[in-house]
Design goal:
mainly alpha, three-stranded antiparallel sheet, two-stranded antiparallel ribbon, 5 strands, Xan_ur_permease
Amino acid sequence: MEEFTLATTAEENTARISLEDEKLSLGANLAYGLQHVLTMYGGIVAVPLIVGQASGLSPSDIGLLVTASLFAGGLATILQTIGIPFFGSRLPLVQGVSFSGVATMIAITGHGGIQAVLGAVIAASFIGLIITPVFSRVTRFFPPLVTGIVITTIGLTLMPVAAGWAMGGNRNAPDFGSQANILLAAVTLLIVLLLSKLASAAISRLSILLAIIIGTGIAYAVGIADFSRVANGPFVALPQIFHFGYPVFDTAAIISMCIVIMVTLVETSADILAVGEIVGTKVDARRLGDGLRADMLSSILAPVVGSFTQSAFAQNVGLVAVTGIKSRFVVATGGLFLVALGLLPVVGRIVAAVPSSVLGGAGLVLFGTVTASGIRTLAKVDYDNNMNLIIVATSIGFGMIPIAAPGFYEHFPPWIVTIFHSGISSAALMAIMLNLLFNHLKVGNSDQQSVFVAGTERLIRYQDVAGLHDGDYFLNGKLYDANGSEVPLIPAEAH
C-alpha cells in the first residue's frame, strides 16, 4: 500500500511539470539546440545580407551585420525562453531578425542610411513596448479558429522558402534549379523519413539534424559543398557598440517602422499562441504580454550592436512539432549557440557552408508539419450552422495572395505593402476581423443558413414528418409500419 502511494505521488509530480519546463540531459540539449540553429540559420542571416547590400556597406561591414544579428538573436532567444519578471513567454521560441521589415528598411536606407534604420527600429520598438498591454488582452479573440488559420498559413507561406532552398538557394547562380540540387534535397528528405521510421526514439527525434549532417557529407563527397572559405576572416569577433554610427531618429522613418512593429506584434502573437497550442500549454494575457515585451525589449537593444527588429521564427515552431521536443531549455541552448556564433564567426561560416539544397529537403518536412499542425487545430472548430468555414476559406485564401502573386500590392502605398506582403500577417488580420464580424458582432447576423455555412445537420420537411405514424421504421431503404408491413414510397419524379 505504501509503495502504491509513493508511485502515485511520483506520477502526480511528473504530471505537474509542464512539457516546456522539462529538463533533458546536456547531450540532448546540445543536439536539439543545434538542430534549432541549423533550421533558422539561413533565415537569420538573410536580412542583414539584404539590408547591408542595399545600404552599400562593404563586405566586412556586412559580415559584422550578420555577426550582430546572430548575437542579438541568441540573447533575445534566451530572454524569451528563460525569461525575467515581465519579460519572456518561457516557451520554446527561437528569436531572430524579423523579415517583415526588409522592404521598409531598404526604403529608409535610401534616405537616411543605416543610421536612420537603427534609429527607427529603436524608436518604433519602444512604442511597441508601450502598447503591448493592448495586444496581450486580446487572447479571447484568438480561438482555435484563428490560431488554426494562422498556423496553417505559416506552413504554407514557408513552402516557397523550402522550394527555393531545394533548388539551390541563390536564384542568380547558374545551377539554380539543377537536377543535382533537387536530387540532393530529395536524398535529404528520404534520409529524414528513413531515420524517422527507425525504432530508436532518440534517432527519430534527431532525424532533421542527422539528415542535414549526412546530406552535407554526401554533398561534400560529390563536390557540391564548399568549405574552402571557412578559414577566411577572423576566428573571434566581439560585437562592436554602434559600429555603424549613432542612430538617427527621423520622423518619417519611425512612422514607417511603426507599421512594421504592428505586423511583428501580430506575427509574434500568432507564433506564441501557435507554440502554446503545440506544447499544450494555455497562453493567457499575462504570458502573451511577457512574450511581446521580450520581443520589443530585444528589438530596442539589438541596434546597439548593429542588428534590427527581433521576432519569433515560425520554422522553429514547426521543428518543435515535428520532433516532439517541447522543452524551452533546449531552445535556450540554441540561443547560446547563436551567441557563440556571434562571437565566433568561423563557426558561423561552417554552418553557412551547409548547402541550401540539404536545408530544402529537411525544410519540406518541417514546414509541412506546421501546416499539418494548423489543420489539426482547425479540426477542433465547430462548422455546424455558422460562418466558420467561410472565415477559414477567406483568411487562408487572402494569406496566399502574396505567396501566389508576390507583386500583387506593388502599386499600392508602401504602408499597405508593408502590412500585406506577408501571407502570415494578411491571414492573421483577416481571420481576426472576420471572427469579430461573424462570431462576436451578432448585429445583422441572419438566422437562416447561408450557402457558405457548413451545415451537416439533417434537414427534413415538416410535411414529410407529419406523414409518419408511431412505430414506422426504415430498413434497407424501405419504410415499414409498426406491424412490419411495407409502406409504399412515392417516387421523387411523381411530386
